[in-house]
Structure formats: structure tokens, C-alpha cells
Amino acid sequence: TFELAKSSVAPIPSVVPSLPEYQTVTETGTRTLWVVFVLMTIAAIVFSGLSWNIPIAKRLYHVITTIIVVTAAISYFAMATGHGIAYNHVVERESHKHVPDTTHDIYRQVFWARYVDWSITTPLLLLDLCLLAGMNGGNILIAIVADLIMILTGLFAAFGSEGTPQKWGWYTIACIAYLVIIWQLAYHGRATAQAKGGKVGKFFAAIGGYTLVLWTLYPIIWGIADGSRKMSIDEEIIAYAVLDVLAKGVFGAWLLFTHASMPESNVEIGGFWSQGLSGEG
Length: 281
Ligand code: RET
Description:
By secondary structure, the protein is mainly alpha-helical. It has a single domain, classed as Rhodopsin 7-helix transmembrane proteins (Rhopdopsin 7-helix transmembrane proteins), CATH 1.20.1070. It contains 8 helices and 3 strands, in the order αβααββααααα. Strands 1-3-2 form a 3-stranded mixed sheet. β2 and β3 form a beta hairpin. α4 packs antiparallel against α5. The chain is elongated and about 85 Å long. The mean pLDDT is 91. The protein binds retinal. The site of retinal has 19 residues, from α4, α5, α6, α7 and α8.
């Protein structure tokens, strides 16, 4: 019987499978998410307050910019309370000399609530800039659709499997869409803004350049954090938090305060935008 028991013991595997690794948010990340929630809420109150003394027909930038920070506040509330987060299963291959290849399971959190936020807020940020430049409807539509393609293919990239074309394939498609946006703003936007006159041309070049620099940091952070997993979840949260405050809060304040002292930046409201508004200004 002793012999029987001995032979029924499973052989010890030559390669011990390693335990899965979970890459998750910690207290630092959660605290950061709450801070941004508060900042965006304050921005929403300030931006809507700024429209108080402004005739309804001239509030378009205020309306757009307030929706942007309200959306961000909602998305940060979701993420801070643990909503809008899913795990991406990454199978990492480890090859060592003299040892057979082993695989290592990694489960990394993807904050998909960001992409919901971005798919609402980035088209609106672009709308702010396109209206400031006085771009035509066709070019505005191209910029906004390219933006939606960029964000949604970026979401697919975030859930892409490594070792397949999914992750970096989607990332490449998103980057091409981003180039379309840059083309619309830097080429068509700049030209129409300059045609509108000195002040608007200069302001558009300044706020457009600021936007270009900030927006370009998003795919860089994405590549280091989500793409290559060289940043912890907390570091990723902090990087995006800083960028979001600059790209939404500081951008919005700059736009609304400058607009207040620059009548040339008024949107020439026509067609359906002004239905029922004439005479209220
Ligand atoms: C992703 C990954 C795929 C490649 C590219 C990206 C670009 C994202 C951008 C986001 C901008 C967000 C803003 C948020 C609001 O504050 C989706 C990261 C190109 C440009 C401005």
C-alpha cells in the first residue's frame, strides 16, 4: 500500500507556474481621483457662474466648456468610487536561457470610464477651438469624427491582447486619426483664424499650440503606461490627472476669460444655434 500511495503522488513539475500578478490602483491613486473630481466640480461652478452676466446668445463657449468639466467631474467620481474599471488579461512570455519558456499572467486595470469621458469632452474641446477659428461645418465635422475614431480605437487598444496585432494596431489607427485632427486645426483652423483678424489669429495660435502640446502627451503616456506597462496604475492616474486639469480646467479658464475681453472672438451664431435666441441678447 505504501508503494501505491507513493506512485499516485503527482510528479513535481519542472517549471513552477508563477502566480498571476494584479496591477491595481492603491490609496494614492484613489486620492488623486477624488482631488480631480473636486477640482472639476469647482471649475463647473465657476464656468457656469461666468456666464451669468452674458447674454444667452453669447454663451456658447460657456455652455460647451461647462459641459466639458461636468463630464470630467462625473467620470472622476465614477473612477474614484471604483466604477468604470475592468481588467485586461495580459499573458507575458518570459524566455530564459536553458529554461523552457514560461508565461506569466498579468491582470492590469483599465479605467475605461476615461474613454467615455474623452469621447464626450474631446469633441467639445475641438468644437471650442473650431468655433474660435471660425472653421466651416465640413472641416469641423471631419475633426470631430476623426476625434471619435481616435478615442474609440484607443479604447480597443487598451483591451488589446499582446502578441497579436490588436494593441499596437489599434494604437496606430488612433494615431493616424489624431494626425487628421492636427491637420484640420493647424492648417484649416489657423488659416481661418488669421483671416478673422489679428487678435483672434494670435489667440488661436497660442491656445491651439497649448492644446497640441498637451494632447500629444496623452498617446505618449498611454504608450508608456497602458501600452508597455512601464508605469504603475497610480503613476498613470497622476499623469492623466495633471493633463486633464490642464487640458480642461486651465484651457477652459483661459478661453472664457480671454473671450470676455475679446469681442472679435464671438461666435457668429446662425441657423439652428440661434433659434429662439434673437432679441434675448
Ligand atoms: C490615445 C491612445 C491611442 C492613441 C492616441 C490617443 C490620444 C488621446 C488623446 C486624448 C486627449 C484627451 C483630452 C482629455 C481632456 O482633458 C486614446 C491615448 C492618439 C489626444 C484632451
